[in-house]
Design brief:
heterodimer, B: about 475 residues, alpha+beta, seven-stranded antiparallel beta sheet, about 35% helix, about 20% strand, globular
Chain lengths: ~350, ~475
């Protein structure tokens, strides 16, 4: 399979890489090219729980990886998204879609430690390694995170994994206005409480209201005590444990809160941007979440009003999890407007000199 | 050449452009003292514009440059390039912004690592990467070499704490990589730049992620009659599902040396000493402690000591952090390695190192980050003894080979630099090396940025690390 893909690239084909297509908007470009689907390359190559390291093939469903890790009490701390929809690990890395749980220990870039990929000239390249600490050579694993198949065809990935907390619990606090909610979120993010996830949900309405969701994980016997300490500073929070907690966060990371035909945008922001964004969106019906302690805005825009002017455009990625065949105007805008500096262009020239990855 | 120097003189006043031999002596070498090279000149910029102008001059005149902080590299990373200049960034040492609310710091490259945590402490925050040289090493150097420390298993290395970079590429152009958010879209160029060992240019503004200071610590010291038993304890901790902030092991020779140097109160008859540190929220740490202690009590530990206060914790760490330089004092010369092996292979690797040590008749002390498999064998020799250096070099090479054989890495945190250039192609194959060379050539077609480090193994000088770094001799820094 790998040899075949290498030959394709060596013979000058322009390719378009896909996995389970759970981020379908990213597949609306370059339909005339050869499609390489990594789903056929799946499975766990090696997994040694003692080492906190797992190596998997790119087309492996995240669900399968999570199940294998869970049997050993471990997990992927970057909290991959769209798992229930069948997302592959390769697609997750290529689009850099990490869920709310990445708040605690870090994102995909912090856990991908080794990679094997085919470059634009068909060369088979290995970067990083299979040990959790390594400073030898250029960091190709990190480079590939978010590269959306434009720098190489990733086929094998090695991750650092962690022991999974014994138990989780979530506090949900309601706020009538955005500002106090953001303030509380910022305070908690800078506190010594070991918080797993910290998201701000916007509840549609006129005016909208806000829910601050705080997830705690750890040893079960002290979980309630820890939650009580955080609860003290919150306005009448509800406390969700076990299934309720799990379902809530599953809904978040699988983006089930968004309308099925909506375009979904990922916007990297800082906590200070939240109020500004809200002031622009407050009167709109746009569904939205501020995840990772206010470091990511997830915005779902209904296809019917997709033409509307988008309020910010620093760097956005449209992923549309379960969309129609409609082209996404924002996706086109992204591909045309993405500012590429000297460094980015040099990397692209080195890895894909003939622009075979589109 | 004189035209080149004239162009530099138009940027710098005479006291910030060193060209006289005597003034440049301290720039001839870094933490890897065996290598020495006199630069053509040393430029000492105070502003980003001066750095940019200097790099442009170098590009136009095709003169190589090496950016340098405080010269603590243990792999020869900041050694001058023959015929090239040194750009000394010490005076670019301003913390441009420290935002406690957003938990970021924007710093210039010459800022000292520990300074960031000191400033961040006002907000209850810290900068996690803690190389042993943190009281002198600079953030710019940490970025170039992706420096580590004692807490890498849980918190990662430097690259995991850098969000954004303003960089001067080798042609003098300026680029902004990343930003201030924890998340990004598009390829992770920041991650690619960190650890490039200066080959991609110079970072002139670095945006760092700060984390809340843990509420509490539990530091436990356990003594074992063999290294194997200490290693088995590490495996038991990992298997229990705990994730300690630090897991460190020292061998007999290292214990003796540390005790003699700083008197941390270590059990002198121990063959292996394990330091376990739990950290985090109070209740959680107490609960983890309740899981950890039965494991330790059921192990072969014959001394179990817990730090009861900040002073006792500091004593335990003082011994560990000073162990390397302390061992170095037992011998006139030494070579230090920082290879990595899978954790499960630690026992086997240490056994093999001991065998090699006996075979070559050379003493080796071991201090290592057991949590992430990062070895730090210290190979002791006397350079005045005929053939001793050669035998020590041979042993060092065999240890690196061992790390590669075990599926590990030739360097966990010191970088390839000058020292391990010959070994990188043994860890990566020809295709991988060609790819790295292509990337480097696209970013730096003239190969003027830190030429001769990491990638060009041809004609590499032999591996020699000899004597204590002047700062170690002065007791200012110690090695991990």
């Amino acid at each position: 399979m790998i040899q075949h893909w290498q030959d394709l690239l060596r013979n000058g084909s322009c390719v378009h890489i896909s996995g389970a297509k759970t981020k379908s908007a990213l597949h609306s470009i370059g339909k005339e090219n050869v499609e390489i689907c990594t789903r056929s390359l799946s499975g766990i190559v090696t997994y040694d729980p003692q080492e906190f390291v797992v190596t998997v093939l790119a087309g492996t469903r995240i669900l399968d990886i999570e199940q294998t890790l869970a049997e050993q009490g471990q997990y992927l701390p970057f909290d991959p998204m769209l798992v229930s929809q069948g997302a592959t690990i390769g697609g997750c890395v290529a689009t850099n879609t990490a869920g709310p749980g990445r708040f605690r220990y870090g994102g995909i870039r912090d856990f991908l430690i080794g990679i094997r990929f085919i470059d634009g000239e068909g060369n088979n390249i290995h970067g990083g390694g299979r040990v959790v600490k390594n400073a030898a050579g250029f960091d190709f694993p990190k480079l590939m995170v978010g590269s959306r198949g434009r720098l190489g065809l990733m086929y094998e990935l090695t991750f650092k994994v962690f022991p999974k907390p014994q138990a989780y619990g979530t506090l949900i606090a309601d706020f009538a206005e955005c500002e106090p909610a953001v303030q509380r979120m910022t305070q908690l993010a800078g506190s010594p409480f070991d918080i797993e996830a910290l998201d701000l949900l916007v509840v549609s309405g006129n005016p909208p209201t806000y829910k601050l969701a705080i997830r705690i994980g750890g040893v079960e016997s002290v979980l309630q005590d820890r939650m009580n300490r955080i609860r003290d500073g919150l306005p009448k929070p509800r406390c969700w444990m076990k299934d309720e907690d799990m379902e809530f966060w599953k809904n978040e990371r699988d983006l089930r809160w968004a309308q099925p035909n909506a375009f979904i945008y990922k916007l990297p922001i800082t906590p200070k941007d939240v109020l500004g964004l809200e002031s622009k969106l407050v009167r709109s019906s746009v569904q939205r979440r501020y995840s990772v302690g206010g470091n990511v805005a997830w915005i779902a825009i209904d296809t019917a009003c997709a033409e509307q002017e988008f309020p910010v455009n620093p760097s956005l990625c449209v992923i549309r999890p379960t969309g129609t065949d409609t082209e996404s105007p924002a996706a086109d805008a992204f591909s045309q407007n993405a500012p590429e500096g000297h460094f980015a262009r040099a990397i692209k020239r080195a890895l894909d000199p003939h622009s075979r990855f589109l | 050449m004189s035209a080149f120097l004239s162009s530099l003189r138009s940027i710098y006043p005479s006291d910030r452009l060193l060209t006289h031999e005597a003034a440049m002596i301290s720039y001839e070498s870094d933490g890897l003292t065996a290598f020495r090279e006199r630069p053509l000149a040393v430029a000492i910029p105070e502003t980003a514009d001066e750095v940019i102008a200097t790099v442009k001059c170098c590009y136009d005149a095709n003169i190589p440059f090496v950016a340098r902080g405080n010269g603590t590299s243990l792999s020869g990373g900041s050694l001058p390039t023959p015929g090239g200049i040194v750009i000394s960034l010490n005076r670019m040492n301003r913390i441009l912004k420290l935002d406690g609310e957003q938990r970021i710091a924007i710093v210039e490259p010459g800022v000292i690592n520990l300074q960031v945590s000191k400033e961040a402490a006002t907000y209850g925050l810290l900068y996690a990467p803690d190389p042993s040289s943190q009281s002198v090493c600079t953030i710019g150097g940490n970025v170039a070499f992706n420096s580590g420390g004692a807490h890498c298993l849980k918190y990662g290395m430097t690259s995991n704490h850098v969000l954004g970079l303003k960089v001067v590429l080798p042609d003098g152009s300026v680029d902004q990589l990343g930003g201030q958010s924890l998340e990004s879209n598009g390829p992770d160029h920041v991650g690619m730049f960190v650890g490039c060992e200066g080959l991609f240019g110079i970072a002139i503004e670095i945006t760092l992620r700060l984390i809340p200071k843990p509420e509490t610590y539990k530091t436990i010291l356990c003594a074992y009659r063999s290294l194997k038993e200490a290693g088995e304890m590490v495996s038991a901790i990992i298997a229990s599902g705990l994730l300690p902030g630090a897991l460190e092991i020292m061998d007999h020779l290292a214990i003796q040396a540390a005790e003699a140097a700083v008197h941390p109160g270590y059990p002198l008859d121990a063959a292996g000493l394990l330091i376990v540190e739990l950290e985090g929220e109070k209740n959680q740490v107490e609960a983890e402690y309740a899981i950890l202690m039965p494991l330790i009590r059921n192990s072969a530990a014959y001394v179990i000591r817990e730090a009861r206060n900040t002073y006792e914790r500091a004593q335990i760490w003082k011994g560990r952090k000073s162990a390397f330089s302390a061992v170095g004092r037992l011998s006139p010369d030494f070579i230090v390695q920082d290879g990595v092996v899978p954790r499960a292979k630690l026992g086997e690797a240490l056994e093999r190192i001991q065998q090699l040590s006996q075979m070559h008749g050379i003493r080796v002390a071991n201090v290592f980050h057991a949590g992430d498999g990062n070895l730090h064998p210290l190979i002791l020799y006397d350079g005045k003894e005929s053939g001793a250096l050669h035998r020590a070099e041979k042993l060092a090479e065999e240890i690196l080979e061992l790390c590669i054989l075990f599926g590990g890495s030739i360097t966990g945190e010191h970088g390839v630099g000058m020292e391990k250039r010959a070994f990188l192609p043994r860890m990566y194959n020809e295709s991988d090396m060609q790819c790295m060379n292509r990337v480097r050539s696209e970013i730096d077609p003239r190969h003027i940025a830190n030429r001769g480090k990491m990638l060009s193994a041809t004609g590499a000088p032999s591996l020699i690390a000899s004597g204590l770094h002047p700062l170690e001799q002065a007791g200012i820094i110690s090695r991990e």
